[in-house]
Amino acid sequence: MKKFFESKAFCLIISLIFALVLFFMVHDYKLINPSGSNYQQDDPQLTSNASKQVEVPLQLNVDSDKYFVIGYPDKVKVDLKGPSALVTTTANTQNFKVTADLSNLTPGRHVVKLQQSGLNSELHAKIQPEKIEVNIQNRETDSYPVAVKYQKSHIATGYKVGKIEKDVDKVNVTGPADEMDKIKKVVAEVNLTKDTDKTFDKSTVIDALDSKGRTVNVVISPSTTKVKLPINKDNEDK
Q1: Which of 162, 148, 158 is nearest to 226 (CA)?
Q2: Residue 118 lies inside a defined structural domain of this protein
Q3: Counting beta carbons within 10 angstroms of the beta carbon of residue 81, is it exposed (0 to 12), middle (13 to 18) or buried (19 or more)?
């Protein structure tokens, strides 16, 4: 028996058994995983596609020292499509931008196609709206005196307003030409409650108004002023 285990025939039998075991192991693996891919490659979270809509700020490429732009939306919607993980990451980080290139346009109304940049090449993006209409106007600046406005009917009976004080007499107003033409006066409006019988002494917002008392869309600097509105009894002099 000892000679049999040490014989060449025994070695051949053992080799054949190992060969058969390896063959069946490989065969069974191919039946279970015929494509030869690993688990991570078949993970649906990595290979599936997804879509998501995000809202992003609209950026303008324009010489803002020379022009004002009117009529454009502050934000636009973007439909993202592509690999699920990439869509989720991009929607959360919003590491791309949508712009309207106005750099070669002159004053007037224009229809401009929006563009995106910085988006991963594996993603497809659809911007809504695809185009916007803008009104480009020359930027103008002028100075205006500031008047204090308040409702006299809100002063309590038997009281009167003394000499009004404010720490800003003039302001610089900047805006598009069309809006600047609408300005009739610049005021610091004091909001009094009914039957006010105490002096008002607070910081007040400065607004530019048109002929109908509506606020004009311009930039005012400084934008506030401290107003003191003395309110005393009618028989007092202060």
Answers
A1: 148
A2: yes
A3: middle
Overall number of domains in the chain: 2
Number of other CB atoms surrounding residue 146 within 10 Å:
22
Residue 14 domain-assigned?
no
Do 158 and 211 reside in the same domain of the chain?
A: yes
Domain assignment of residue 102, given as a range: 48-129
* Contact by Cβ (8 Å): 78, 126: yes
Q: How far apart are the first and last CA of the chain?
A: 131
Please state, in angstroms and rounded to a whole number, the distance separating the CA atoms of residues 123 and 216: 42
CB 176 within 8 A of CB 68: yes
**pLDDT tens digit string along 50-94?**
999 999 999 999 999 999 999 999 999 999 999 999 999 999 999
Considering the entire predicted model, what is its pTM? 0.62
Which residues contact residue 127 at a Cβ distance below 8 angstroms, ignoring those fewer than 6 apart? 76, 77, 78, 98, 114, 116
